[in-house]
Amino acid sequence: MVESVFDWDDPTTAYFWEAARRGQLVIQRCGACRQYQFYPRLFCLACDSDDIGWVAASGRATVYSQTTVHLRSSPEVDLDSPYVVAVVELEEGPRLLTNLTEKDCLIGSSVQVGWRPRRGQAPVPVFGPVTS
Amino acid sequence: MLMTGLAGEVFISGVAEAPLGEVRDHSELSMIALAAREALADAGLTLADVDGLFVNYLGEAGTVQVGEYLGIQPTYSDSSDLGGAAFVAFLGHASAALQTARCTVALVVYASRQRTRASRTLNHWNMKATSPQFEQPYGLPAPIGQFGLLAARHIYEFGTTPEQLASVAVTARQWAGMNPKAWQRDPLTIDDVLESRMICDPLHRLDCCLITDGGGAVVLTTGDRARDADNTPIRVAGTGESARQWHIAQLPSLAASPGVAAARSALQMANVVHRDIDIFEPYDASTISVLLALEDVGFCARGEAGAFVQAGSLTPTGTLPSITSGGGLSYCHPGALGILLVIEAVRQLRGQAGLRQVPGATVGLVHGIGGLFSTAATAVLVRG
Q1: Domain spanning B10-116+211-383: CATH superfamily
Q2: How many Å lie between the alpha carbon of B198 and the closest alpha carbon of chain A?
Q3: Which residue among A78, B82, B176, B331 sits deepest, i.e. has the most Cβ atoms within 10 Å of its Cβ?
């Protein structure tokens, strides 16, 4: 049996998870108005164009907000408590929910993307201190 | 477009709480039957008069199941899922239905036994509640994780302090001490809140609402029928609602909160301004919810709500008595609080709030939020 890249029957986001398997964070960019967007949608939210395509994000971001969760995560998520959940703002503009790998990545600090492997599923983008 | 000038005034003519706290001798449906019949009696009506039914969170095709149990065959049904704000939004939906003669007596009901059933497991709820692809893998417990993120950002932008957040919980407890039905009535201090277990930084256990059973019923009708009520009917003077985002990362800024549009609409429709409001009933799912509500509705400039609450403004002797039942933080939080906010506002405006009565309260503002800080609904209620 072929291992599933993702558990969700969503052909419109398959490219994102295929890229994730290659360790590449991709977001959408509108060919008409050049706006970036995340999460992926069928059309451009900014100008309503259908001319929407994928581009590689730089992976650099700024922490917009973060909270340390002291509850146990569900078995499906399987994170060791406490863990940090954050909203980060990508250099390109869109924001996404993620985990921070270091607790001292405070709001306003620069972070860069890394990947957390998951059993049987594509890795998810997580963010940590800028190392390079 | 703003709805103004619709013919016929709509009144809340009956209210009742369902059994609250820990309810072991009832089902959700029997709790609803108790509350509905009590609220209808309060309105001088019976179940046979009800032709409009408004429910949320009561199972598949909720209005059908509740209607069947109550023996109601509604000509108008609404189960719009705006989360806990739905029950405030229903005041607007029911008003529109009554004013266009789609129904003549509207019944809004809710009940939950989430405490007794131990059904509220935050992380598992999240599995269903947020997108499984882009938010679920990160383990944000819903909705308290969203409130943690909002609180952290509020602190970062405005210098709001944990003590200011805690003062919301202390204020709620102060009111609860005067409400015999409140789940938690013992005095609470700032230190108690700050020393309670951290849940989602910066929110402690006592920054978060209760998990209790409970529910209630609200009856609305037009002016002619409202005169049958034993008690002073309370006019629904203005309503507004808004839905913004499901994924918290999609909220552009604190200032873009769904509560801003909802409150603006309700205040405009009621043609009142903030200084006209005698009591404020915000949906206190957490302490930060109240700071955001104060700023979204416009009682405070953005970033100033923490100092406003810390100065005692929301207390019984403050300039804006708020959370007068003790709220979700200390009185009752049965999963969806909205209906209890409406019931408390009506009791205050009727002058039936006992020890916690705000003297001469004539204009109340109820501000509900729902989902994952996704929706908001506001109602301005007026005595007479």
Answers
A1: Thiolase/Chalcone synthase (3.40.47.10)
A2: 7
A3: B331
